Structures are given as C-alpha cells and as structure tokens.
Amino acid sequence: MIKGLIFDAYGTLYDVQSVQARTEKLCPGKGDLITQLWRLKQLEYTWLQTALLGYRDFAAGVEATENITKPLFAKYLDLDPYPEAKEALGALRHRGGLKLAILSNGSTAMLTALVKNSGLDAFLDATISVDDARKFKPHPECYALVEKTLGLKNDEVMFVSSNGFDVAGAKHFG
Ligand code: LAC
Questions:
Q1: Which of 8, 32, 78, 132 is the catalytic position?
Q2: d(CA 124, CA 121)
Q3: Fewer CB in a 10 Å sphere around the end CB: N or C, the chain?
Q4: Which domains, ranges and CATH numbers included, belong to the chain?
Q5: What tens digit of pLDDT does each residue of 111-166 get?
Q6: Do 101 and 6 meet the contact criterion of CB atoms below 8 Å apart?
Q7: What is the pTM of this model?
Q8: Quick check: helix, strand or coil at residue 4?
Q9: Closest Cα to atom 5, ligand 1: which residue?
Q10: How far is the CA of 76 from the centre of ligand 1 (A)?
Q11: pLDDT digits (tens, 9 = 90+) for 78-105
C-alpha cells in the first residue's frame, strides 16, 4: 500500500525557468540561453560528480560578477512553484493518510529556503536533501534516504519527478 508520495523539487514542483525574467534583466538578450544552460550544466555536473565518486555543492563555483550572481542565486532560493503545485499538495494533505516529502539534489540550505519562501513547507512532512548521502540522484543511496527519514519501505513509496533520469533512478531503486 502506498503510504508516501515523494516529489522531486526542481522542474517538478518548482519552475526552474522562473529565474529567466531576472536573468534577462541582468543580461539582456541572453536570459533564455543562460537559464537553459544553467539547468543543463547543473544536471551534467551532478552526474559527473557522482560518476567520479565525488560530491560537492558547486552552486557557488560559477565565474561571473557578483552583481549578476547575487540576485540570480537569490532567485534560486525563491523559485516559483508551478501554478498547480500548492493546490495539489494541499488536496493530498487534506485527504490524509499519506506522508508527503521532497527528495532533491538541492542542498539542505537551498531546499530549506525554497520550501519556506514558497510556503510549500506547510504541506510537507520532510524535505530531504541528497546532502545526507553525499551523492546526487540517480545514485541509489539518495533514494534510500526516504526510508531513513520517513521509515517507509520501497513498496510503500510512490516517487514523482518530471526528470526522466530521476524516474529511472527511483524505479531502479525499487
Ligand atoms: C532535483 C532535480 C533533479 O530537484 O530536479 O533533485
């Protein structure tokens, strides 16, 4: 029986392109290019780090001037949830009987700020960061954090993600 619904954060509950408007203002004509590349590079670096058996929070390693990076990084802590995310989580919460949580490649600090700023923390039993495994999804140890945190077995958990590699990782883990 499913007892928990675990959501990916970036691209699933939160719109990573909601940083686009601010990027366009700071870097006119390049907002779309930079935000698309930013997301692709994030994913590429997490896979590379995990394949090389490394782990570090690389968010601050971007070479750019502070007047650009500061407001952009700030927006990443305050991404817009997709329009239906709050209502969907609220309805699931109201229905009862299910644990609701995020399992994300974001760092604990990023995710704590993100769920608080967006108000989604009110609907969640936990916000789980891969920080605790020191690996990035789709490494199996990341998905194992759900049982460690919520005490739910694999077959009691349904995992929700917009990222294909993440769905494959969760399925592989069971
Ligand atoms: C996350 C990325 C994979 O939130 O979207 O973990």
A1: 8
A2: 5
A3: N
A4: 4-14+81-173 (3.40.50.1000), 16-76 (1.10.150.240)
A5: 999 999 999 999 999 999 999 999 999 999 999 999 999 999 999 999 999 999 99
A6: yes
A7: 0.84
A8: strand
A9: 10
A10: 13
A11: 999 999 999 999 999 999 899 999 999 9
